[in-house]
Amino acid sequence: MARHLIRIIGHGVRRLFTALLLLPLLAHASVADWHYRQARDEMRGITVSLASVVSDNGAELSWPAGPTRVQLTLRSRNPSDLSVYLTTDSGHFACLDGATVAVKFDDGAVEDYRCDTPNDGGTQQIFLMDAFGFFAKLKRSGKVTIEPTFFGNGRHQFTFTTTGLGWT
Q1: b/e for 42-51, b at 16 or more Cβ within 10 A?
Q2: CA 115, CA 97: separation in Å to the nearest integer?
Q3: Rounded to whole angstroms, how far apart are CA atoms 31 and 48?
Q4: What's the Cα-to-Cα distance from 13 to each of 4, 22, 25, 40, 95, rounded to whole Å?
Q5: pTM, full prediction
Q6: Of residues 86 and 23, which shows the higher confidence score?
Q7: Are 67 and 85 in contact (CB under 8 A)?
């Protein structure tokens, strides 16, 4: 009986010891800082859902733009309407007819996504085409690196931690 009890206690101690060894690894596991919000479009009688995350890194653009970070946003007006767009807090995206943005999910292959400008002609936001395909890969990824082009500043890479996306 005593040996059985010692074996049970020993097994419990081993499990506790293993858990304590893994704790620092779990503490360093990166989870994205996704921000969620909903906005009511009273004119159309719909609710717009948004999920956004800011890039882990920034880029130094030439004057007058200076340092910039990029925000990745998912926007849905209904189950069949999904948009994926990037917004910069400084500088201007260059997304001319037929332009593409290089995207890499985790350690996968680099893919080109066509980009488009907003209807108002603004240059601090670009939309990535094939939003549903992008979203499907994003849900399965832990990080995504996106390389947009900036007017007068060329291409810059921005990495986003995407783990923990709680949006369907």
Answers
A1: eeeeeebbeb
A2: 8
A3: 25
A4: 14, 14, 19, 53, 59
A5: 0.80
A6: 86
A7: no
